[in-house]
Amino acid sequence: MIDQIGAGADGFTLGEQVTVNPNASCGHCAYCREARALHRAAQSRESLGFLVVTHPFHPLSGQRVEILFTKRRAGAVVFVCADGVSRSVTLPQSWTDRGPEPFGHLLSVEG
Questions:
Q1: Is-contact 93 74, C-beta < 8 A?
Q2: Is the distance from CB of 54 to CB of 95 less than 8 angstroms?
Q3: What Pfam family is a match, any one (predicted)?
Q4: Taking the CA of residue 62 as centre, how many other CA atoms within 13 Å lie in the half-sphere pointing to its CB?
Q5: CB 83 within 8 A of CB 65
Q6: Beta bridge partners of 79
Q7: How far apart are CA 16 and CA 12, in angstroms?
Q8: Do residues 9 and 3 make contact, with C-beta atoms less than 8 angstroms apart?
Q9: Which band of pLDDT confidence, cut at 50, 70 and 90, is reported for residue 35?
Q10: Chain mean position to CA 54
Q11: Which among 96, 82, 97 has a CA at the least distance from the CA of 47?
Q12: Can you give the pLDDT at residue 50?
C-alpha cells in the first residue's frame, strides 16, 4: 500500500494497493546490491525476453515463458524462466527455440 509519494511519481494515490515484480532489481539499494552479489543474476532491469519450450516431453512444451536470467551450467547455457506467479524453471538452451535447430530426420529402429 502506498503511504508516501515522492517527487516525479505520477499516477499514484495514497492508500493505493500495488505489487512489485520480485525479479526486477533497481541495482542501487542495499538489498539489490546484496542479492546481486549472492546470485549474480541479471545486471539490469531490462527484460531478457521470452522463449518457447521446444523439448517434446517437457511439461511446458510449446509454451512461451519469460526469461529471468541466464547462467552457465557444466559449460552450457541454461535459462532460468518464470513458471507461474512465484516459481521458476531452469531450461537448457537446447530445450528451447534459442537452441540449435533439431535434426531434419527421425530416428528409427529396424529389426
A1: no
A2: yes
A3: DUF5372
A4: 3
A5: yes
A6: 70, 91
A7: 7
A8: no
A9: low
A10: 16
A11: 82
A12: 93
Q: How many CB atoms sit inside 10 A of residue 98's CB?
A: 16
Q: How far apart are CA 51 and CA 64, in angstroms?
A: 5
pTM given for the model: 0.52
The number of helices, as runs of H, and strands, as runs of E, in the chain is 1, 4
Note the Cα 67 to chain centre separation in Å.
3
- Average pLDDT value for the chain: 78
d(CA 15, CA 2): 5
Most confident of 18-27, 58-67, 100-109: 58-67
Instruction: Tell me the C-alpha distance between 97 and 55, whole Å.
Output: 9
Instruction: Name the residue ranges covered by the structural domains of the chain.
Output: 30-95
Highest mean pLDDT among 1-5, 20-24, 44-48, 70-74: 70-74
